[in-house]
Fold this protein.
Amino acid sequence: MIHLRFLRNGLLLVAFGFAAACLFVTLWGHSRALAQGGNAAPPAPPTMADVQHLKDITPPMSHPMVDVAFNATNLYFAAQKKNWPLANYYLGETRNRMRWETNLNPGPKGTDGNPVDMKSTFDGIDNGSLTQLKTAIGAKDSKAFDDSYKHLLEDCYSCHKAANRPYLRPQIPTAPAQTIINTDPDATWPQ
């Protein structure tokens, strides 16, 4: 009995010692890290080379519109297959890329040389044809979708003309933008 009590007390002492040693090592390492971090020099201010590097790696302002075309095309074909969840996804992606474009290029020069208010233009499209498309998708209404999609393309072209790009004339897509995503709502593969 005495031997078991001695063994138990010895194990408790070892466990306590181990815990104390771990705590000491942790605190010691933390205090060294703080001491080293306090001596670090503040970061240097950005240089013109840094700014130029950012300009060099920034995609062109047309990049979001390429994404808009990609997603709007996929939106169309998803709806034609009556894959309403996928159509809803592509509608959201189209809307997000349009919003990105208005943030990147909020005031392109219009036909009169003055800036076009892209935020107001986007808000009109967002509250108009994009909302109509959302409603048509929610109702799973192919006819309403087709009408709303044509309205979206008309809105897009109005924006292109206002931004002095009348040569960018959208049309009803004739082929999917990609073929890796299966638009068939009854697809069974992959599982």
User: Anything to note?
Assistant: The chain is about 65% helix and 0% strand. The domain at 62-162 is CATH 1.20.120.290 (Four Helix Bundle (Hemerythrin (Met), subunit A)). The two ends are 63 Å apart (CA to CA).
